[in-house]
Amino acid sequence: MRGARRVGWAVATVTTVALAAGACGGGDGGGGGDGVVRASWGDPQNPLEPANTNEVQGGKVLDMIFTGLKEYDPETGEAKDAMAESIETDDQQTFTVKIKEGWTFSDGTEVTASSFVDAWNYGANLDNNQVNAYFFQFIEGYDEVHPEDEGAEPTAEEMSGLEVVDEQTFRVTLTQKFSLWPETLGYTAYAPLPQLFFDDHEAWLERPVGNGPYQVESYNRGQSMRLSTYDEYSGEDEPQNEGVELIVYTSNNTAYTDLQAGNLDVTDDIPASQVRNAEQDLDGRYINQPAGIIQTITFPLYQEEWEGDEAADVRRGLSMAINRDEITTQIYGDTRTPATDWTSPVLGEDGGYEEGLCGDACTYDPERARQLIEDGGGLPGGSVTLTSNVDTGSHRQWMDAVCNSINNVMDDNNACRVNPVATFAEFREQISADRMTGMFRAGWQMDYPLIQNFLQPLYYTDASSNDAGYSSGEFDRLVDEANAAADQSEAVETFQDAERVLAEDLPAVPLWYQNGTAGYSDRVDDVRLNPFSVPVYSEITVN
Amino acid sequence: MGHYVIRRLLQMVPVFIGTTFLIFIMVHALGDPVAALFGDRTPDPATAARLRAEFNLDKPVWQQYLLYMRNIFTGDFGTAFNGRPVMDLLVTAFPISFRLMLVAIAFELVLGIVLGVVSGLRRGGGVDSSVLLLSLVVIAIPTFVTGVLAQFLFGVKLGWTAPAVSPEAPLNELILPGLILALVSLAYVTRLTRTSVAENARADYVRTAVAKGLRRRRITTRHLLRNSLIPVVTYLGTDVGSLMAGALVTERIFNIQGVGYQLFQGVLRQNSPTVVGFVTILVLIFLLANLLVDLLYAVLDPRIRYA
């Protein structure tokens, strides 16, 4: 196994400080099979259930062992049919889903319509404490299985909007029109689950069973997971390698060093301190591309001083006072891309990404910025604060830079002050309780590559992540209209119209798109990142 | 002797309760861990309330503490938020950190004392000056720098060892991390031994031993060294605890999934059951190591007697 591959130091030779006592090289580094890709991993934050995994590390595994109704193209982000034979609707509200025949889970049982319906009912039910339960909120009957109020008990076991028609077909009724809904189904929360999951939950968690291109061979919690290819796999994305070994690293720095030493093939998070040299160190085997993550500065519109038209001018001015280009280059070494709209480049032009939609408001223009802020009556109370958690993501550095940028424009060293919050949890708590008084960071990682996901949950009146407390009748109307549109391109265009309302009102100003980074060894080829910044393991070939 | 040990063990009880209570309060002052589970979005109130109830977070802190202590005495350290029993983590992490600590202590004992004695006996000589200078350099450079440097040099450039330790962390892979971990303490041990040896070399009993015509080697090992080791043993005793708890930096650099790393992970994710569980065990280790040091005094110096 892994230990055998490592080049150990012979203990006997190291009597005193005999650092010179080296061991000889360990050969070709085959960690149990020549076709196996060795990839870095982190300990998943939550138990590995599809509806309970909302971060990348757990997502990596679920991506490999599950294939949902749809799958997102790594290049374009487009949702393509995977397990779905067809998804049809006449009214954008009731969908008939037909699944392909002959698919099996890796324990041999067949994937049927009930595999999906049972899994979704499980994910939505409040009793199961699934953090992704909100994914099912559009399905009729969600309110009964997952009442919103604290302390409320579910009044139903299953959602009334899910109905099994036959072995291969089920019908879904939504609470509202949502034309792009089928495109959301590529997310792992919608994965089908085998009967074993419900019969012997503990056993399933020890060794998850899915219907994807890989199956779990062994799982050492917190240390490593070995995945082998599933020979009976019916999908088109058959693995180009013999398996994947995921290895937990204590830090991304260590993973990167191990990659350089040739003990690791793929690492998908290059440490910030190495980004500048990675291209050279790895001989070009380095990937740096936008991910489905956007960082914005959001304003507490629920505070009186940030309301009204004049405040909108101040917000516009503040946005124009930020030198995005300089910050992304100097602080992030180009692993962030200055944002010019409220979505992400991973959507592609067809999916609704439009470069420059934000217009002048996102362009650095110190003269005009000062003018706008002064016209708007100056900064509320003479100065603003910028708040964020500082435990991850080099937040402290860019906050300082943004404040400096604003201070320079205003020619006042106290115009902008940084308010660092120690932990993310504490930061979220303050935001949820509406306790913000000045600007604050709001990052958004998409659930699925859809323009709807970048707009509705964040800016629709009373939406789940509407941290600004923004409410615009015009915006809400356009979103509703887009959701009811019969045609996909029409829906996308209407969503863009809604986005233009944001460009007018500026409840939040875009900062930059976060990039996904990865490096790989010369032992492997064809490494790509999908829209979620996870390497597409099934495509990787081993030389 | 027996009475003394029992008295000391009894004294540990209030210390243990006090420290665990303090750490419990501090971890809970950090904020709401449930909110962090939901990533960049507002947790929905119903699920959050359920999770809080599951981990007893909805009760007042004193009640949570009592519940926690009751469970500890039945061997139940609670469950981390990712569904893993904390006991599991303890059982995997402590042996690894223990091995790492042993390697580090071995380096400190062998290298530190040898260098200390040599430079102590030849005060002002070339060896003494260079050891002094070197120990200054080692103390001045943070572990982070030496660790990353050594990892890159021996792991990547020279390829003598793997830069990352495998999850099982066998002893032979822990030699480089152990040395890095030991470096700073090593420098202190050297300096302590040197001072102590230099002082005792002029003591009456050493002169008497020389006058008796004992062999030089015997004087150094049996008489001089034994008495000079008391401050060193005190230092090493407290170091056992801090090496196990404070290996955070070294463990992260070399991919060792020991106590420091688990604590770091626990704090980062506000996983209170993990943090409190690990610290509780660490408190016990500190207390026992201190007791051991006190008992060792009597062995080293016959003038010390415990009644």
From TrEMBL, chain A:
Keyword Signal annotated: yes
Boundaries of every Solute-binding protein family domain copy: 81-465
Gene Ontology molecular functions: peptide transmembrane transporter activity
Pfam family, one: SBP_bac_5
One Gene Ontology term from the biological process aspect of the record: peptide transport
GO cellular component: ATP-binding cassette (ABC) transporter complex; periplasmic space
SUPFAM superfamilies, per database record: Periplasmic binding protein-like II
Signal peptide: 1-20
Keywords in alphabetical order: Signal
Domain of life: Bacteria
PANTHER family attached to this UniProt entry: ABC TRANSPORTER SUBSTRATE-BINDING PROTEIN, PERIPLASMIC BINDING COMPONENT OF ABC TRANSPORTER
Record protein name field: ABC transporter substrate-binding protein
Organism field: Streptomyces chumphonensis
From TrEMBL, chain B:
Keyword Transmembrane helix: yes
InterPro entries documented for this protein: BPD_transp_1_N, MetI-like, MetI-like_sf
Transmembrane feature ranges: 12-31, 96-119, 131-154, 174-192, 224-249, 275-300
Cellular localisation: Cell membrane
GO cellular component: plasma membrane
ABC transmembrane type-1 domain residues: 94-297
Membrane topology summary: Multi-pass membrane protein
One example of a Gene Ontology biological process annotation: transmembrane transport
Pfam families associated with the record: BPD_transp_1, BPD_transp_1_N
Keywords tagged on the record: Cell membrane, Membrane, Transmembrane, Transmembrane helix, Transport
Protein family: Belongs to the binding-protein-dependent transport system permease family.
UniProt name for this protein: ABC transporter permease
Organism: Streptomyces chumphonensis
Organism taxonomic ancestry: Bacteria, Bacillati, Actinomycetota, Actinomycetes, Kitasatosporales
